[in-house]
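Retro notes
What went well: the complex prediction finally ran end to end.
Inputs used:
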Amino acid sequence: MPKYGMVIDLDKCTSCQACVTACKVENNVQIVSEDDAQNGRAMFWMKMLTMEFDGDYPNIRPKTLPRNCMQCDEPSCIKVCPVRATYLRDDGIVAQIYPQCIGCRYCMANCPYTVKVFNWDRQEQPAEVERTYNPDVSVRPKGIVEKCTFCIHRLQTASEKAKAEHRDLEPGDYVPACVEVCPVDAISFGDLDDRKSEVLKASRDYRAFGLLEELGTVPKVRYLNAKE
Amino acid sequence: MSYQNLRDEDEALFRPIYETDRSFYAVVIALTAIFLFGLGCYIHQLIYGLGATGMDEPVSWAFYIVDFVFFIGISHAGTLISAILRLSKAEWRRPITRMAEVITGIVLAIGGLHPIIDLGRPDRILHLFERGRLQSPLLWDLTSVTAYFTASTIYLYVPMIPDIALLRDRGGKLKNLYRILAWGYKGTPKQKHALERAINILMVMVIPIAISVHTIIAWIFGMTLQPGWHSTIFGPYFVVGAIYSGIAALVIVMLAFRKIYHFEDYLKEIHFQYLGTLLLVVALLWTYFTFNEYLTTFYGHEPAEMRVFLYKFTGGYAPFFWAMVFCNFLLPVVILSNKKLKKIPGILIASIGVVIGMWLERLIIIIPTLANPRLPYPTGMYIPSITEIGIAGAATSAFLLGFMGFSKLFPLISIWETKEGREHSVHEVSMRLREYLPGQLDKSGVEASVKAEL
Amino acid sequence: MKDRTVYIIQLITLSFNWLLAISVTWWFVHLVVVSNQVKDTQTASLWISILAITVFWILAGVLSYVFFSLHRREKEPA
Ligand code: SF4
Ligand code: SF4
């Protein structure tokens, strides 16, 4: 079984937010009204986070950092879900079952990274957006929680394609939208169990660190510090 | 025990059941209006989703959860206090226990509904039964609240059977209802014995259940990794807070209904003074826990914890925090430790202060933590919407309506226990007292000496 | 109302408590089975279930004890 992981190189990242946009389009994430956005209900699976500190704990220089779901190996979110609407898959992805979620928001309260977003209500989307909905991803109803899934629908398509072609899934077959779109290739993605994979090598780099690693959540999204 | 002479002596306790004056209906109508408004708010929320509330990100839990914790806290008034008082054979409990237990039953039903009001998809509630995951504290909570509700209703009902039998024997309105509920109680010694035994078992069972309920509610927060929540003393801290707000609510309700139904002869100042002393003790205990909680946070000085800490002490929630300190510590301690102020008006003011303070305490525990996540997001904001306030109003008026409805069906003060106090306890207590004294050998010796004196 | 009707209604109200105890038991057993199927938190589920089921059964038991001891006395000559 592979174990998917991601390494984001903050040295290469220019904070262009292409990943943020790509994610929103790829996953049909709802666009909320201006009022709601102002009230802190904007929905992003991938978010550009401004880290206030500069050059402190372990020498972080960049002030921004793209943050998606950390796909923790010891996720706090699944522990507290009362209905198994979020669970850890064998391939390491923390998935969310939309039709199962009852919207208690306990997982939101317990994610140390404040990653999960809630559909406070369902709003009319701009016509252009509705035209370009991704058919592979369900449009979530109001009242449930959602989050980054490492574009799990792409994994499904890729493995089905591989199966049809009678071969195994190759490393480049499945990449999430943010990885694909990054203009400077700052994000590497792949199988952390594969010894030859680029992502494993990157995650063992001396510059690598995980956000809030000290909590023991074992994030599978790791970052590379900016070089001096 | 002959029922005939009982009628005359404690007639005042029966009166509310048979006589209703006009102002009662006026209050009922007003409360029903508030309740209906809240119901309308909830329907609005059902249609438009939780967007109708003031919650956002990262403050994803707010008013409903605060009210949930608060109401369940109030419910500890009853069963726990009455069980403890019964267990410790405090004689002054007799006119208090019934009201305390009624508060528990009603408030628990209302508080228990709050997490459901808070759900984004209440229509999927059955998923809890189909695919529930028992590791989640929410399920522990569901279980323990149900258990507490069952236990406290039984604990309310069983000691009420003799009173229902009295009502049945009087005949008149709702005779058949009382006949069904009285379970054929006739007051034979064997029946009494069985009842007493059951009360004793329940009393012992209800205490751990009550404590577990609020501990588990504390664990909903304590089991997370969030700064300000992840604390080992949350369990006992919440329990103490629950008892604290419970006693205060009990005092308020008792004073109100004493006034309305003219129970002055049964609920004397001394009862309130004893409750006041209890309140004072719990106030100090609560302060001790609060001090512990915040001092360790401050001393440890962990950045994430400190952000929450400062948010409470000097930041956006400082007014609420200091109001809480005033309501929960200064006000009750000053009033209740002062002999001159510890009269009924003073005790009432202290109790109202405590109820408000404890609500603020729940607010202060829940929102600042959510508003200050670990990662450097902008600090969250939360302003409740009309919907949330309306539902809180509805919950409160539902409680009052339930209590008033109860008072029209059953006596608010346990008649047989009052009777028993009058007939047996005077003798029993003086015996007990003598047994404590040095120089008394055994029970029979004590009995003989009491007899000799009489 | 006849004594018999009253008794039956009383029995029905009592049986609600048993219904609750039995449905709680059924629910917990179901949850343990589910947790075993998906191989997830089996031990926790088991222990919590045992604890909760006991509490509900004892409560129903106490209530039934009251009910039947109140009624048994009725049949004896006063
Ligand atoms: S980052 Fe949060 S939502 Fe994602 S797996 Fe970890 S705990 Fe769960
Ligand atoms: S909001 Fe949904 S996914 Fe999150 S804990 Fe509740 S039921 Fe589970």
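What we learned: The CA atoms of residues 275 and 389 of chain B lie 31 Å apart.
What to try next: split runs per interface for comparison.
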